[in-house]
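WARN retry 2 of 3 for item q-0093 after timeout on previous attempt; input resubmitted unchanged.
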Amino acid sequence: MRTRSVLVAVALLAALSQTADGAVAAGGPLSPAGRAAFDGQAAHDVGLYWIRGGGNTGWAAAQEFTTDDDRLSRVSLFLGSTAAAGRLTVQVRTARGDAGSAVASATVDLAALGGAGTGWVEVPMSAPLRPGARYHLFAQATTAENTKVTWYGTRAAPAGFPAAAQYDQARGKWQPGTGRLAFYVNPAGSERCGETEACYVPASTKPARTAGLLFNGRAVEAVSPAFAVGARYVEGSNVLVLPSGRWRYLPEGAEKSRVVEAGDAGALAQIAESRRWLAQGLVPGAAGARRESAGRALLSMRALLRPNGAFAAAWHPFWDFSWPRDAAFAAAAFAHTGHDEEAYRILRHSAGTQRADGTWEARTKLDGSGPPDSRPWQLDANGWIPWAAWQWYRTTPREGREERLRGLYPALAKAADYAAASLDGEGLPPASPDYWELPTQTANLGTAAPLLSGLRAAADLASGLGREADSARWASAAGRLEAAIARRFGPLGYPRTLDGQFGPDTAVAFMAPPFNRAPADLPRALDDTYRALRRSNGGIVPGTDDSEWGNVTWTPSTTFFSLAWSATGEREKGRAVLDWVLAQRNVLGELPETVDEQGRPRAVMPLGWTDALVLLTLVQEGATPLPTPPARRT
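OK item q-0093 returned
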């Protein structure tokens, strides 16, 4: 493969004989011996020429080149398009204005590229070439009216270098330009798209901030949505296969990824280690999309889990903190898939970041040093963390589990005592920000339901350790809270709050297993709430406050309904909802946080909370349902 060069002499071009439209004799004159080829130009700082044809106002463009290669395998062009569909014709010609001189021709379906977007388009082509001969790379698109396809490049071509040209159909002739178009002939190595520069990126991917994760056992690197295009993971790993066939991975001990040849020894060792880790536990779900999603969710959660037990919500600024809520679900999911060490590590970190009064901050920095800002703390953590500890205890090997539970017990006791003491005379908790992370004026179901589950979990754990006084105290509080929820929230259909400020809410699913025993009136409330929260793209918004949620649906909220229905005997309903969630996976198989009205993934991928919920739902769909903390008699 030749080296790109800008050392072509002015005399070379001056010596080339041209016709008026830029044609040359077949094959073109050969470059003088020792002259470097010009067969690639990376700069694309400006949309240089429109190339949409059709009617009397169409255009095309061409870039002259020479090469040292004797065979053509592919070309690439940097394009921008506003068209959802259409056809791109690419040719390599010996005479710029003569389609009959084409030595190779190919057609690209713009819809197959993902519609409107920008980036490098690689086009496979095959033909013999004459080293040193002059050729023209020609492109023209056919699309709907009022759309544009633009070939990018740079405004000026240094003296002595071949400039690009545009064909103006209205004038019926080629217009020589002064710039150069961005292109490669036979791109190789870092010239291939997806390595140092992105392949063509559909506009539909742009609302997303991340697309996947690279992980070496310690360090994490987020995959940009632009560099996920055309890529895929090596199965059972966090190693990416790029469009070129080469691999991108995060080597052991490194903080930045590298591109290596397929089969690189370091990458193979990492792949083998990831697969061993998966094999140590359970990958739930039936073969196909469910099993694939479970494996990817486990690997993504493993990457988000820090060595100290902090669990990042996602790997992007403003998400790279540890929320007690997300961490609790991750611990439960790790526990039920046989990854006991990871589950317990999260619980130990949660115990270590508890505030002195028995509550938790809304979120903390990953190093455990405290909250990143003044976001108000949220009482629901006092329910979710004891619930997660109970789920872990039910799955962990019996040998040594009581001693390990004792290590968590002081934090669990403080959490349960605070929750019990917070209940008012009616048995309800105070107003507190819930999973919306926004305050309410009255008690909300998003806090009350997790506290009910957490108090029951703590009571059962306490009894198992012989702490009957603790168990009785928390079981009594749980009984009061259950009665208050039934009396105040139940008749209203389990809305978010009691003051009429908010209507149906995803938190209705928190009243179902594996969190709480489902009340008799819950099935109807689940159905009514799902209908109220479902949006046109098929997903669920957390609540009915359109000023907060609009039509952007949330995968955690949607998955909660799948889990609730699967756990209450409505398995077909649950499967259908989970099918929708899994259909939102991106090209790497990662699940997004949100989905916009057009069905495009938004925010971050992966989101650890969604991954954990999907895993728990897949376990629930299996032969052994998830357990629910029991109601103990007082």
